[in-house]
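Backbone-to-sequence.
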């Protein structure tokens, strides 16, 4: 005699079902994101079986949807944390000197230094005068030497090449701040900008 397990899996009729001994049955829902098993459903009628399968399928779908939403939300938060940030920008006329020596900066020599890359003066840098000190550069031979930053103020953006250490925000050439503020560097003194790191190639490196 076939058991209820056999009957639930197909080729059954009501007479056979009534006479079949209740046995433990396990099923695998292999078409969804995971394998779900149910045991001891033998005593249930065939009418209950579809709803049981549907319940497990619904559970699989909802679990998958929840995980996807959580992962996407986490990724979005991480992206926001590493993208545009509000920082202070001010000017330092030191960096306007075309003949200024890179040997006086944190990005002089060393494996990450700009002299090592073949530059010697401020004016030799490909992005001059859009250069300056960046707080991401924390000391000599910083991995952030030569990093490129898009800074935006009042809807206008320029790219700053990081070549020296800054305690906070950006200290850039006056010419760079004048370009960003339409000639208002001296009048404004400092401004709050949105800063986003971009590929160094954007600044010519």
């Amino acid at each position: 005699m076939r058991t209820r397990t056999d009957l639930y899996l197909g080729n059954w009729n009501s007479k056979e079902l009534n006479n079949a001994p209740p046995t433990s049955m396990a099923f695998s829902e292999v078409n969804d994101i995971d394998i779900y098993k149910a045991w001891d459903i033998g005593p249930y009628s065939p009418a209950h079986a579809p709803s049981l399968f549907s319940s497990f399928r619904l559970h699989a779908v909802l679990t998958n949807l929840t995980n996807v939403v959580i992962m996407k939300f986490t990724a979005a938060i991480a992206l926001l944390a590493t993208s545009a940030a509000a920082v202070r920008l001010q000017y330092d006329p030191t960096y306007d000197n075309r003949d200024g020596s890179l040997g006086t900066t944190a990005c002089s020599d060393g494996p990450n230094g700009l002299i090592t890359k073949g530059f010697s003066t401020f004016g030799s840098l490909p992005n001059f005068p859009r250069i300056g000190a960046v707080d991401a550069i924390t000391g000599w031979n910083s991995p952030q030497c030569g990093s490129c930053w898009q800074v935006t103020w009042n809807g206008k953006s320029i790219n700053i090449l990081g070549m020296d250490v800054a305690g906070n925000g950006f200290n850039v050439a006056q010419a760079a701040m004048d370009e960003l503020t339409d000639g208002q560097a001296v009048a404004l003194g400092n401004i709050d900008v949105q800063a986003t790191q971009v590929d160094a190639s954007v600044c010519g490196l």
